[in-house]
Design a protein that fits this description.
- The chain is an alpha/beta fold and 140 residues long.
- Helix content is 19%, strand content 34%.
- The protein is built from 2 helices and 9 strands; from the N terminus they run E-H-E-H-E-E-E-E-E-E-E.
- The strands form 3 sheets. Strands 1-2-3 form a 3-stranded parallel sheet, covered by helices on one side. Strands 4-5-6 form a 3-stranded antiparallel sheet, with no helix packed on it. A 3-stranded antiparallel sheet has the order 7-8-9.
- Helix 1 runs parallel beside helix 2.
Length: 140
């Protein structure tokens, strides 16, 4: 489960799904986040002449869906809680998304909250980088 569909969330969705994980990405507005509204992005890795934010978001969504990512948008996550072995997200419309977290690759899942913010992060060791981490957080 990935909360937030900006560039980091889209990348996490692609990487997770490409490793065979059933992946759902939830975005409250449109995939691409703030970057998706940029008229020109000049500093994104792999695009030496730049591209528009909308084009970057479109390409990332196509790639994510190719790997089987389920994209839920527009949907807002209002609560995140852990009840081992489940991670449970509550959506603004009252829907519940519930997944069992598998300890694949000896990874870890963390949910942290502080007033006004919830951060959900997933750390999965990968062959080329033993401590790669992706996190998504936004004001709640």
């Amino acid at each position: 489960m990935i909360v937030g569909g900006g560039p980091a969330g889209l990348a996490a969705a692609v990487y997770g799904a490409s490793e065979g994980l059933r992946t759902v990405m939830i975005e409250r507005e449109a995939p691409g986040g703030q970057a998706g509204t940029s008229s020109r992005i000049e500093n994104y890795l792999g695009f030496p002449v730049g591209l528009s934010g909308a084009d970057l978001a479109r390409r990332a969504v196509v790639q994510a869906k190719r790997f089987g990512v389920e994209v839920l948008t527009p949907q807002e996550v209002t609560a995140i809680r852990a009840e081992d072995p489940y991670r449970i997200l509550t959506l603004a419309d009252g829907s519940i998304v519930r997944r069992i977290v598998e300890n694949r690759h000896q990874g870890s899942v963390h949910v942290r909250s502080r007033p006004g913010h919830t951060v959900f992060s997933v750390c999965l060791p990968v062959p080329s980088n033993p401590a790669a981490a992706v996190s998504s957080g936004r004001p709640t």
